[in-house]
Amino acid sequence: xxxxxxxxRAKLQAQDNKQTSGSSDSAVFAHWNINEGExxxxxxxxxGNEKNSFFWVxxxxxxxxxxxxxxxxxxKRVEVQVPCIEMYGxxxxxxxLAEVRPWFKDPNLEEMGRKYWKKKSYLFQGFVRENPLxxxxxxxxxxxxxxxxxxxxxxIRAALMDTEMENLPTDYESGLDFxxxxxxxxxxxxxxxxxxxxxxTALSSEELAAIEKYGLFNLSEFLPKKPxxxxxxxxxxxxxxxxxxxxxxxxxxGSYYKPxxxxxxxxxxxxxxxxxxxxxxxxxxxxDEDEPPFVPAVEEAPExxxxxxxxxxxxxxxxxxxxxxxxxxxxxxxx
Length: 335
Prior knowledge:
By secondary structure, the protein is α+β, with helices and mostly antiparallel strands. It has helices at residues 5-19, 95-100, 107-115, 150-161, 205-214, 229-244, 250-253, 318-334, and strands spanning 39-44, 57-66, 78-83, 119-130, 144-148, 178-181, 183-185, 188-190, 195-196, 258-259, 267-268. The chain starts with a helix and ends with a helix.
């Protein structure tokens, strides 16, 4: 049966909402809003994309600051976030990083290079088993998504590299919970005391039923849209204007990328933007901790012949989990 125009529009709008979901999306658990001294317990799940080697996907964004908006006399500084196309595969070349990489060979340009370097975060999914947020808007589907900063991700990765971890933490029968702990350090939110639970647990019947009913998210669907050739040209123009200290040109670039707050179309919305310090005395910096390489020539990881598959079903034996963990460790070492 052919869809009506209204139904087609509704489906397209639903797709747009899914791809550009931010902090208003109740499926995203805003762990950065927990109070200092509180913890949240999370159980990660596999990616719904069985071709993904890991149970997360990496997101890389670049921030382009501008002194203001062209033509607006009293305009304040604005910032545009653009996707780094290298997150979609090694065959893609980011025009900004291509320009910035050589800057790290010059000490006088290194600080500027860090300013325009990609900022990484990592998308996960799973259940929130212990939630200290009284005002959290819980969606009907209890499978939540998480935007994890490099600081927390490094703790997750370090545990996977530990040979004493015998089972995948996403295993339905013998997985591990991850405990997000928020403290402060130097006036900023600090998550360095976060850790994996020591005790393995099975998913509850309710959690298994939720997976059966709703299925797992394909995490790559929540990455920003891959830039087209035209959009890459616009990104390069904006980068050059930002470095030169020119204002943001709404007429030239507004149809592609906008600073958040300058309208509704194609805005550069900061995904999962942490709330202001009213929630906590510590300032929150969720995705500023990623560092550019000191030796750009060896930045890229070698190819791996076969991608590993993290099955969404419980493993029959520990051997399968050991094999997958070994492959994750090998790939992590290469990266």
